[in-house]
């Protein structure tokens, strides 16, 4: 071996050692793929026992035999004796645990592999799974184990896995990657997915990814990034097929045959003029069944409304849902075709909206990492606990106004929570209905009054029904007709107030730009508690004292 060759081997081995010392496992895997099996064997010989096993777990399965051929028999036996070296396919031979689902089984396998240091099992499992499922497994792991499992994802799939992760987890894992690895991962993504990834990363990191692209790619990405993330322009991709109205179907078919494959979810082509102004759509099914001599103009639909680039993503999702769309064209203010939105992006929007509503009811962000650090999670939740404490003191202050009444009639303290609880439940039902109506576009200024009257009617009927029930139970319990009448009146008033508040609160919040899904529940609970306590104790003061 020449001196120059030794220098090359020395440099590559040093690079691997440096990456190992820095914990850059993905870089180690990438370096190992570029090295000759003999060089990998030379590296393994020079490592300590623990490091040797760690690096051996990072060698591709297809290269294992080639590397082993260059190792002394002692080391070959050591590595092949490792229980994971010749492990069977993941999950084979494993005993099922009760009624464990497939997802639970996969998570258990990953956790066991991490605990035992058998990283090849994780690599094999991840290679069989869809990127979305890998993302789900990563989000199910504590932060420390997550980083190790993330290193086992093949580099050419890292970008797709990042795309399916929640924002907070994605940002943390991307921050741990070398820029070179991150750029390689980004190149494997479709433009619309890459735009979503860049928008979720810190600005400096996103700019570095853009600068690493060639001029044409960078220009396309910057044009898509110029639109807000929650707009049609932010959702669109640029892989549409545009045609002219004057061409024949036979010509279009010949052009399509030249393509290696059609863009995903291509159910229609978009008809444009010479300046790319949108004119209509041509459905793919019509192209397949039409005579070759027919023109696009004869088959196109001119009444299909395009999506303005500035339109909000929620409105786009609503249109896709209402019209069962698979794709739709996106135009700018001048009517020029910019790109298209496809159903896979809309499904992401719908899922995010659902998660936002569900998590918002508890004052949480839908992007929150389940295994985020304790301090960060505590800080987030402390805000809403503080707000709730203020509202609780407000309710306590109202109770304190009637301290004398409570001291004289102890039964009031026993029955008081019933009034607030009934109002809170009734108000929450109305609030949820109104928030859903606002999200789906079913509630607007024209029908708000009708809904308000309807909910007031429901509150009145339910108030009368449960007022009678609770009054009868209170009379039987305490033998006091006055207390029964007081709690009946208080429940009726609180259920009416809860119904009105459930409609009005989200509408007012929406007008002031506050998300009712995030703060509506706290405000509503405050209103029903204060009104319920005030009505019950106020009436008791007037009647009993």
Automatic annotation (TrEMBL):
TM segment ranges: 382-402, 408-435, 456-479, 485-509, 521-544
Keyword match Transferase: no
SMART domains registered for this protein in UniProt: MgtE_N
GO cellular component: plasma membrane
Residue segments, region Disordered: 80-101
UniProt main location, coarse: membrane
Residues of the CBS domain: 300-358
Sorted UniProt keywords: CBS domain, Cell membrane, Magnesium, Membrane, Metal-binding, Transmembrane, Transmembrane helix, Transport
Compartment(s): Cell membrane; Membrane
Keyword Aminoacyl-tRNA synthetase applies: no
Pfam families: CBS, MgtE, MgtE_N
Membrane topology designation: Multi-pass membrane protein
GO molecular function: magnesium ion transmembrane transporter activity; metal ion binding
Described purpose of this protein according to its UniProt entry: Acts as a magnesium transporter.
Subunit composition and interactions: Homodimer.
Family named by the database record: Belongs to the SLC41A transporter family.
PANTHER family (UniProt xref): MAGNESIUM TRANSPORTER MGTE
The protein's name: Magnesium transporter MgtE
Organism: Thiorhodococcus minor
């Amino acid at each position: 071996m020449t001196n120059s060759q030794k220098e090359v081997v020395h440099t590559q081995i040093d690079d691997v050692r440096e990456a190992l010392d820095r914990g850059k496992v993905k870089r180690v895997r990438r370096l190992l793929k570029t090295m000759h099996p003999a060089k990998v064997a030379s590296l393994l010989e020079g490592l300590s026992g623990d490091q040797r096993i760690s690096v051996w777990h990072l060698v591709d399965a297809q290269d294992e035999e080639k590397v082993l051929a260059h190792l002394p028999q002692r080391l070959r036996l050591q590595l092949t004796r490792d229980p994971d070296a010749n492990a069977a396919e993941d999950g084979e031979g494993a005993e099922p645990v009760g009624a464990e689902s497939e997802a639970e089984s996969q998570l258990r396998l990953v956790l066991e592999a991490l605990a035992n240091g058998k990283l090849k099992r994780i690599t094999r499992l991840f290679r069989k799974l869809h990127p979305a499922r890998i993302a789900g497994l990563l989000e199910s792991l504590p932060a420390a184990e997550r980083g190790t499992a993330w290193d086992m994802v093949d580099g050419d799939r890292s970008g797709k896995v990042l795309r399916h992760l929640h924002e907070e987890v994605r940002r943390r894992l991307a921050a741990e990657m070398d820029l070179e690895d991150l750029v390689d991962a980004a190149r494997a993504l479709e433009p619309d997915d890459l735009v979503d990834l860049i928008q979720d990363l810190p600005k400096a990191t996103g700019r570095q990814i853009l600068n690493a692209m060639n001029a044409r790619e960078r220009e396309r990405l910057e044009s898509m990034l110029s639109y807000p993330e929650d707009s049609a322009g932010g959702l669109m991709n640029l892989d549409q097929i545009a045609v002219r109205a004057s061409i024949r179907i036979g010509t279009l078919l010949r052009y399509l045959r030249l393509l290696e494959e059609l863009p995903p979810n291509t159910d229609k082509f978009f008809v444009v003029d010479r300046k790319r102004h949108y004119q209509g759509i041509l459905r793919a099914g019509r192209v397949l069944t039409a005579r070759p001599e027919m023109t696009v103009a004869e088959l196109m639909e001119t009444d299909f409304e395009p999506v303005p680039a500035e339109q909000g993503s929620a409105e786009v999702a609503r249109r896709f849902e209402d019209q069962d769309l698979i794709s739709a064209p996106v135009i700018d203010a001048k009517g020029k075709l910019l790109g298209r939105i496809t159903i896979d992006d809309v499904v992401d929007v719908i899922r995010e909206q659902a998660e936002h509503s569900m998590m918002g009811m508890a004052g949480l962000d839908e992007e929150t990492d389940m295994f985020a650090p304790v301090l960060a999670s505590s800080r987030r939740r402390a805000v809403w606990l503080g707000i709730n404490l203020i509202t609780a003191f407000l309710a306590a202050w109202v109770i304190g106004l009637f301290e004398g009444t409570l001291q004289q009639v102890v039964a009031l303290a026993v029955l008081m929570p019933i009034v607030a609880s009934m109002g809170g439940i009734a108000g929450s039902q109305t609030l949820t209905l109104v928030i859903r109506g606002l999200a789906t576009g079913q509630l607007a200024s024209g029908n708000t009054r009708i809904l308000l009257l309807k909910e007031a009617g429901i509150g009145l009927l339910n108030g009368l029904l449960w007022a009678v029930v609770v009054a009868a139970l209170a009379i039987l319990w305490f033998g006091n007709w006055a207390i029964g009448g007081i709690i009946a009146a208080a429940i009726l008033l609180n259920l009416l107030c809860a119904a009105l508040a459930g409609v009005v609160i989200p509408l007012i919040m929406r007008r002031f730009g506050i998300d009712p899904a995030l703060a509506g529940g706290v405000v509503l609970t405050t209103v029903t508690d204060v009104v319920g306590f005030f009505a019950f104790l106020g009436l008791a003061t007037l009647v009993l004292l």
